[in-house]
Design brief:
mainly alpha; 2 helices; single chain; elongated; 0% strand
C-alpha cells in the first residue's frame, strides 16, 4: 500500500464529509446525493493521481 500514499487522507476527508452530510439531513442545508457522489469521485481520483505522480517523481530521483 505504499503506492497510494494519499489514500488515507482522502478517505479521512470522505468520512468527515459523509458525517457532515448525515448531520445535515432534514435541514435547509441538506447536501444532495449527486453532489456527494461528485465529491467522492473527485476526491478519490485526485488522491489516486497525486499518489501516482508522487511515485513517478520518486522513481526519477532514484534513477538519477
Amino acid at each position: 500500500m505504499n503506492r497510494f500514499v494519499y489514500l488515507k487522507p482522502a478517505l479521512s476527508f470522505i468520512m468527515i464529509f459523509i458525517g457532515i452530510k448525515m448531520a445535515l439531513v432534514g435541514s435547509p442545508w441538506e447536501i444532495p446525493t449527486w453532489f456527494s457522489l461528485c465529491v467522492i469521485l473527485f476526491t478519490m481520483t485526485a488522491a489516486s493521481l497525486a499518489s501516482l505522480y508522487k511515485e513517478k517523481q520518486q522513481l526519477k530521483v532514484v534513477n538519477k
